[in-house]
Amino acid sequence: MNQWIISTIFLTMSFSKFTSEIPVRPDDIDMNNHVHFSRYLDYVLAARFEQMERDYRMSMEEFTARGLGWVVSGCTVQYKRPLVLGDVAIVKTGIVGLGTSSGKVGFEIIRKATGKLSADGIFDYTLVDIATGRAVPLTEEIIQRYSI
Amino acid sequence: MNQWIISTIFLTMSFSKFTSEIPVRPDDIDMNNHVHFSRYLDYVLAARFEQMERDYRMSMEEFTARGLGWVVSGCTVQYKRPLVLGDVAIVKTGIVGLGTSSGKVGFEIIRKATGKLSADGIFDYTLVDIATGRAVPLTEEIIQRYSI
Amino acid sequence: MNQWIISTIFLTMSFSKFTSEIPVRPDDIDMNNHVHFSRYLDYVLAARFEQMERDYRMSMEEFTARGLGWVVSGCTVQYKRPLVLGDVAIVKTGIVGLGTSSGKVGFEIIRKATGKLSADGIFDYTLVDIATGRAVPLTEEIIQRYSI
Amino acid sequence: MNQWIISTIFLTMSFSKFTSEIPVRPDDIDMNNHVHFSRYLDYVLAARFEQMERDYRMSMEEFTARGLGWVVSGCTVQYKRPLVLGDVAIVKTGIVGLGTSSGKVGFEIIRKATGKLSADGIFDYTLVDIATGRAVPLTEEIIQRYSI
């Protein structure tokens, strides 16, 4: 419970949404001729890596250099419409809450060809000390960087 | 709302849990030296395929032969402890609810070496007509097969 | 032996090389912090799909519509230098020979950041009738389309 | 050239073949309803990891502990017959030659249900110093372990 007190405060602030384009590769397609359902998670992961560097100006490598890492501690996905071979996925993500040592990232995956929603959901990230694997508190600097 | 009325009835029945063992492959390991987070979904999928045939005696191929398919319409995963190279994942799944044209499957992924929980969560499946992609109601036969 | 007689004739013609850019995704990275060795094959596959449509003007879908498909019947890869997270792979491919019912495609994967060769090799494709799975001869039209 | 002198000597010795069983997972299946062609490489990789520990009694972890690693420097695959959902792949591998700092591993992938050959080929492995990434010579001990 305590963990989300900061989050509540920050939810009154505005967090931006950022956008990445992920082209569907043939190896993403499964026996149903759609993008395999677990690959949607990989598209969100790819979008976040790009956006951390390009938009938040704090790449995963910078975290690693400080001995820190973001790990996915949970996720929820709702699948709406399939993506198919030849598609480009537009992945919009944005922080929807920050906790003591965690962040909630909302995402939408949109099929570029139609502009329609393909999937949406939430990733729960926890900031960990890479050496110990334990959760560590977000620093003021990290909170500032993410509060754009 | 309406969709879950049947489910409520069936929740008073007992649904069994079944178990599959999925060996971790080196290609499942990511840059963090753990099983990649999206591969957990693939482990659950693999377990369900095995259990549909072995335990429910109604394989995915049988559904396909009737022009039907189960598609994942949503999922939720909580990651607890990593799986690593050399591990075997014990995947326990069981129905936790049936809707008009859907089923909720709960799962636990356990690290065989320690018996500890690695991840758990829920898959939402929808029964669809393969030709049209539309949801179709569960038949009495399907409900019977799953009510073990 | 006989199969490569046409190929010998066509080798005196000039086949073009085409180029695709494949961004490395985090899920492509393995425990060695490099792009996983089998994903190189997927990069070549993705490049060929793009080039079939964009450059040869005969997409895989067009083949499918005629009941035909290209299957990989063999491949050879030499790995030279790793690709890492954040990289873009430049994939150059070109036909290096056509047989009665087959085509040899040479490829080079270049790390965009350095311009240096990451891997090269050959894919052997066979044209098959999708319904029977059997090899079928290249038509004159297919040969013309590929002879650019 | 020089590299294969040791190899020539050892080829007069007998190298054993070892066998692993890899169950096909649904996420291995691609749009052609077959095991995706690049996953064959992952099956061989998985078999080698198992066999290094179980059969050669020198696991990848032991190499890592000495600061050494085996990297795939090249591979060749011939695809013969598809593997499908529900199949188990029998992967037989064996050393076919040792060089100064390298080993050639031949493999056969057999469809358990029929006993028929699905694919075969060669992996070229190079022994490297993990810290520098450079090739290092096989020690007498490593050669002994592999000469069974």
Architecture blueprint of SSEs:
The structure is a homotetramer of 148-residue chains.
Chain A: H1 5-10, E1 17-23, H2 39-54, H3 60-65, E2 68-79, E3 88-98, E4 102-111, E5 116-129, H4 140-146
Write up this protein.
Four copies of one chain form a homotetramer. Chain A has 148 residues and is of the alpha+beta class. Chain A has a single domain (2-146), classed as Roll (Thiol Ester Dehydrase, Chain A), CATH 3.10.129.10. Helices cover 24% and strands 36% of the residues of chain A. Chain A has helices at 5-10, 39-54, 60-65, 140-146, and strands spanning 17-23, 68-79, 88-98, 102-111, 116-129. Chain A has a five-stranded antiparallel sheet with strand order 1-3-4-5-2. In chain A, strand 4 and strand 5 form a beta hairpin. Chains in contact: A-B, A-C, A-D, B-C, B-D, C-D. The A-B interface holds A 32, 37-39, 41-42, 45, 69, 71-79 and B 32, 37-39, 41-42, 45, 69, 71-79. Strand 2 of chain A pairs antiparallel with strand 2 of chain B.
Task: Provide a quick synopsis of the model.
The structure is a homotetramer of 148-residue chains. Chain A is α+β, with helices and mostly antiparallel strands. In chain A, 24% of the residues lie in helices and 36% in strands.
Q: What is the number of helical segments of chain A per DSSP (H or I, 4+ residues)? A: 4
CATH architecture grouping of chain A: Roll
Please tell me what the overall shape of chain A is: elongated
Biggest interface and residues each: A-B, 17 and 17 residues
Amount of beta strand of chain A: 35-45%
Structural class by SSE content of chain A: alpha+beta
Tell me the count of domains of chain A: 1
CATH superfamily of chain A: Hotdog Thioesterase
**Sheet with the most strands, sense and barrel status of chain A:** 5 strands, antiparallel
Q: What number is the mean pLDDT of chain A?
A: 90
Task: Specify the oligomeric state.
Answer: homotetramer
